[in-house]
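Worked problem 6 (solution included).
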Amino acid sequence: MSLTPPEATDFPWRVRKVGQRFCNLHNDYRPGLREVARWKLKWGTADAASHGTLCEAFEPKTVSPDFATILQPDSGRIVVTWVGHSTFLLQVGGRNFLTDPHFGSHCAPVPLRGFRRQTPPGLKVGQLPRIDAILLSHNHYDHLDLASLRAVGHGIDIYCPTGVARLLRGVGARRLVEMSWGESSVFQGVRLVCLPAQHGSARTPFDRNGSLWCGWMFEHGERKAAFLGDTGYDPFFMEFGDRFGPIDLAMIPIGAYLPAWFMGPLHLNPEEAVRVHLDLKAKHSVAMHWGTFLLADEPLGEPALLLEQARRAAGVAPEAFRLLGLGETLVA
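Solution. The predicted structure is:
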């Protein structure tokens, strides 16, 4: 069966480039080696963690997977299981999707101690149902792990943003569809829309923003799910809500936001994540991009605690924006 090529839509989001480098829609902030050095060497004022050691002791709970639901999902509902970080088993229209699969012990090209996994995956590769397609948001090591892709299996359809397929072909992947912002494709009855994100890409210091980054919308009948990838805040989230809302389920990142001067333009903090939940007109949201890797200066558990505060401040019900446990399943 051949893959359906992407098609242009009437959505207003189009890729921007300066020379050979991709750009965000509304924010041209692109941290380089100087900014990384300033952050790591603590030049200037650092942001203080909001809860200190209390957060360092807090981490996601691990729950026993609900295999009865995972192996026989309701094809008329959206079923999501959090594996960890930005990896979800997402079941839509009877199809099994895997987002940004990462089952490895580190999120770096070599096993550096500072990039080791802090909590185990909620599902092991061998516990997954048959995966129909994989969707990737960008090429950063905490989102695109080649060893995990090989472990999940060859021959699986992979959807990725523009410029990432070359890397994947290098490790033997062949069933690939590259998509740019605003394009859509239909996979076995599920419409996939490539959404803009405010972020960046790199595998080395020399290929910054050489490939695109994105989020994904899944549509099956009247059901809709949004996987936002890695992103900072941008007004296009309100546009998503106007065009797609109400959205049944949104997977929203909440971590890696300190120091704010460096991370803030590229990652949502918990307060912004609640704002995105409201922008999307989401019926249900679940948090991701926290509790797995130490990618920024905030303690491992701080995003979860601050999300609870932000949710209460915005009047969002606990069941509307949830912190899933590792391996926990939600039916929306």
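Discussion: The chain has a mean pLDDT of 93.
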